[in-house]
User: What shape does this take?
Amino acid sequence: MSHPHLHFERCGEQQEIAIIRLARNAKRNALSDALVLALRDLFDKLPAGVRAAVLDGEGEHFCAGLDLSELKERDAAGGLYHSRMWHSVMERVQYGPVPVIAALHGAVVGGGLELACACHIRVADETTYFALPESSRGIFVGGGGAVRIPRLIGTARMVDMMLTGRVYNAHEGERIGFASYLVPKGDALAKALELAQKVAKNGALTNYAITHVLPRIAEAPGDQGFMSESMMAGITQSAPEAKEFMRAFLEGRAAKVRGGSTIG
Assistant: This one.
């Protein structure tokens, strides 16, 4: 994968963390179609050994959304196909090979918010703001936001955002569910990397079950959800990694949870 506006690097003791950075600082990291497709290719081809990813934005903003300079007249079919292309990319993020933590700062707007909501964990610093300005452009969300955003904040709040142009600041966004963590200005990447290192230590099959199966269980009828849960419980505990984790716990070599913290 090579794209001038998408940077990739690895870190961690075993290079187990991927850092994926939108690098269109002059455009507030707005998403061109070429950049969106580069994201798809990258998530399709993450190197072996990567166990968690952090998605970041270069400069003062995470992502200001769709690159409006590319917005052109399309007939209904063209608009449909373009939206479905975006859907395929967001699917790669949400249902890709590893958990993804978004490091948010500055603008998280429009398509940038749709991208952030496809990630599994979101860390916002105090400069972050969230908005959906599509209605003022005479368009509608097309990157999966109509499905993912209401699941985070509720349909009524999304309707309000789209009808009125309401902007949520970082504190409000954390309160209503856009972000799981709120940190001081400039600390989002460091916190996201800290979380990625914890996530990478989990069993790979358990992480896969959490990111791929749990969302589907949550949407399934109760009896189907219970059955899927039981099947995943059986499958994950049979993995060699899980057996080693259990041996370490029983032999006193594993961390214990006390008072809301994990300590040795």
The mean pLDDT is 92. The CA atoms of residues 87 and 162 lie 20 Å apart.
